[in-house]
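Example 293, ligand flavin-adenine dinucleotide.
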Amino acid sequence: MSKLHADYYADSMQQISTSLVRNDQIGEGTYRIRVAAESIARTLVPGQFVMIRMTGTNAPLIGRALAVYDVICDESGAPVWIDLVYLKKGTFTTVLAESPLGTQVTLWGPLGNGFADRSCDRLIMVAGGIGQTPMLLLGKEAMGTQNFGDDKRQHGWSRNVELIYGARRASLLAGVEDFEKAGFGVTLCTDDGSTGQQRLVPDVLRERLAELAHSGETIRVATCGPEIMMEKVSEACQEAGIDCQVSMETPMACGIGICFSCVAQVRQDGPEEWDYKRTCVEGPIFDADQICW
Ligand SMILES: Cc1cc2nc3c(=O)[nH]c(=O)nc-3n(C[C@H](O)[C@H](O)[C@H](O)COP(=O)(O)OP(=O)(O)OC[C@H]3O[C@@H](n4cnc5c(N)ncnc54)[C@H](O)[C@@H]3O)c2cc1C
Ligand code: FES
């Protein structure tokens, strides 16, 4: 069984009911929740997600997918809590943002395949909007500062880790200090120039790849954010011959492969051959050159 296939991790999926122990605003309309979820925290790998819904109410009925942002350990080093970061946008996230500590939520996960742990000299993570959420764990694993997935995976697989992170304005950049504290090189971009460079993240990536072109380093790119941004990042990587993985955020209803609400067009054997793939079980992480944008 391929390590990139969801079935590889399916045995470790759990459904739990747990309560909010944190629900803090960390940016404009952006919140970070913490819940005790030991069984999920112990087995998840970077890029996996959980489905979450409010316990005991049908408003909204359908769960929402949220990438796991961080795993918090107790004093003995055992993973106990998971943190999720969400942008208050519509029905579910508005209810969640207004929920006091102690509110019960139901989670099922970890779900999806997760990013590959392929070795490289430099990992460049490119995030836009709320797409920074799967990047903290990925960078920590790559640097070898935290292990995930019950030691099924290698860690410390990249000597250097960078994040290029953009949003419309400074107030929407959330969790920047977590990435800096984790030791990643962080480049910030905003559309309005309120902080960092007033440029789009794919343009910054393109320039960075050109700078590194003669370094002799093996480089990997991982990206998450609006589809148009990921498409441009993918193009830049293809032109430079760089391995790129994307985290697709197609809307999901079940998260476990039953409803087909989450499909994306994914190439099969040749450029013209494609099929619909369920991003919840066959993704959400795909090699960028497989996606029909
Ligand atoms: C693998 C994966 C990981 C994800 N990780 C994160 C994460 O870490 N953080 C995060 O914030 N989000 C993440 N998402 C997105 C998340 O699942 C939700 O889609 C998002 O939080 C919005 O949910 P909501 O209930 O608040 O909004 P919804 O009510 O579902 O609305 C979402 C948007 O669609 C619009 N909309 C709703 N209904 C309609 C309609 N009938 N017609 C037209 N437009 C409509 C709304 O106006 C709103 O802009 C992830 C998604 C996936 C698939
Ligand atoms: S969300 Fe139901 S099949 Fe993917």
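Summary: The first helix runs from residue 7 to 10.
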